[in-house]
Amino acid sequence: MIIEYKGMRPDVRQAAYVAENATVSGDVHLGKDSSVWFGAVIRAEVAPITVGDESNIQDLAMLHSYFDAPVNIGKRVTVGHSAVVHGATIEDDVIVGMGAIVMDYSVVGEGSIIAAGALVKQHQVIPPYSLVAGVPGVIKKTLTPGQRPQEGNAEMYIEDAYEYAKSPVIG
C-alpha cells in the first residue's frame, strides 16, 4: 500500500516492483529497478528515505527515518528479510543480512556485508568492504571487490521483480 502522509507522496514510479502488502509512506523515493517485497515497511514521516537504483528491500524488512537522520540506501543494496535500517546510510553494493539491525546515524561503507542478526550501533561507521557480525557488530575481515558472496544478488532480484510485477494476483 502506498500512503501519502501530510502531503508527502512516495515516488515509486521507477521501481520494478512493490508488493501489494508492502507499506510505503511519506517522503520516500524508490530508484530505477528497485523492489520492495512482501510485508516490508518503509516509513518516512520526519525525514526522507531514498532507495537507490537496483536495490531490493526484502520481505518483512523495515526502513524508518529519524528526526534528523534520513535513510539513504545506495545502489544495488540488498536489505534482507526482517532487517531493520533506522536513520542510517547504506552505501552502494551492501548486503544487510536477514534480521540485522542498522541504527541511527550509522554509515555502512560500500561493498560491505552486515551478517544475519548483526547489530550496527548508533553512530558506528563501517569502512568499505567490511564483513560485520555479532551483537554489537564487529568487523571480522575486509572483503575484496569481486570476491564477495552473492555478488549478482541485485540482478537476480531485478529479474524476479519484473516477473512478479506481471504476475496475476489470485484471490
Automatic annotation (TrEMBL):
The alphabetized UniProt keywords are: Transferase
In this record, what's one Pfam family? Answer: Hexapep
SUPFAM superfamilies in the record, alphabetically? Trimeric LpxA-like enzymes
Q: Which domain of life is it from?
A: Bacteria
InterPro entries attached to this UniProt entry: Hexapep, LbH_gamma_CA-like, Transf_Hexapept/Carb_Anhydrase, Trimer_LpxA-like_sf
Q: Name one GO molecular function term.
A: transferase activity
Protein name according to UniProt? Isoleucine patch superfamily enzyme, carbonic anhydrase/acetyltransferase
